[in-house]
Design a protein that fits this description.
Helix content is 7%, strand content 29%. The protein has 417 residues and is mostly beta strands. β12 (205-206) and β13 form a beta hairpin. It is globular, with a radius of gyration of 31 Å. It starts with a helix and ends with a strand.
Length: 417
Amino acid sequence: MKKVRFMRGALALLAGAAMMLAACGDDNGGGNPEPELPDVPEKPAIPADAVDLSAKGTANCYIVAPGTTAVFDAACKGNSATESVGEATGAKLVWQSDASLIAQTSYFPDERKIVVETGDKRGNAVVAAVDAAGNILWSWHLWVVDYDPAASLFTTAPNASGTTWSFMDRNLGALTVERGSFDSNGMLYQWGRKDPFPGTTTFTVMREDYTYEVDGEPTVYDGDGRELPKFSSMKEFHGTIGKSVRNPMVFYAMTYRHTGELDEYGDEIVENDYRTGDWVDVSDDDYWGGESHRKTIYDPCPVGYKVPVCDADGNTPYAWLTYDAMKWDDANRGCEQEGQWFPTTGTRAYASGSLDYPEGGNPYSGLWIGTKGKASADLEQNPALYGQYMFIINGKRTFKVNKDKRSQGMSLRCVKE
């Protein structure tokens, strides 16, 4: 009997404890209180009104209107659908031509897209996808302007092979077609590279020791509106494809190597360094599609457009331009044919990366063609390689296809794919 009483007593204690627990939970509607969960911030979303710049395809350059929120695909290189840029974790504004040109740059890792907000100015900028350490994985040129290329294309007459080209009415990166305006000059490019370099904003003045009294360099800014170093001050030598991707602001100039040997006239033999005269260690005749006749991942033109190349029979895309038909405009430093305006822009010199556009003498420019220039039959003795370009200068050499070192910085005019 004592054992039974003990069990009954224990059960009574348990029942009392249960009643006390129930009473403690009465303020919460009965039962144990639920733990409070921390607030989870909502995941940022791509703005619903963002203009999709890559909806019709991807490229290394996008035309975006001022005052626009825009988004583009940042997963793959250039116009490729398969070559990944790598493990991007963010985006940065590399440079902009006006401190308020790009108001905001954001990266959305799940979608692998970059969103930009442009201000109310026209200009040019470069934005990039970066990794966790801030290294640039790939970059894109934003051509911020109210411009629809399709509305003003110029199509050439068929040549003997039946080939036609449909040209934009302005140089790549130009903000206007106003004659005499430096804003009509556009960007400058090393042959085969995807990233632009700004052209001059004034005439250049060089001293006798080859330093500049007026260098013509425009002021460019970072994402916080701070002035960046001049492009010419950031030049380097001995470029590679990898370096050019990581450093879109660096002009890879060509230098010279003193051999110490003398030629038959007693003069020292000085060679290009690289010996090819190229800006890159591994030259490739197809960097801009001159061999494959396809738009490449290094093509700098916007969606639907590409660098002009010679056709399969070797005919130049600029054969329609002739000295007899062109009209030179001295006052505005350019020429016109069939309603198409070609400003002289000068160059970025291959040996320095500096701008060359003197006011005196004969103003000039060159429009790159993505086809290789004729090289020596003996590349062992004469290893220099070239790119073709259309020469714009007031003289009988005007509108003649020429060749120059691929490290030279010249203009481009895109054609419809």
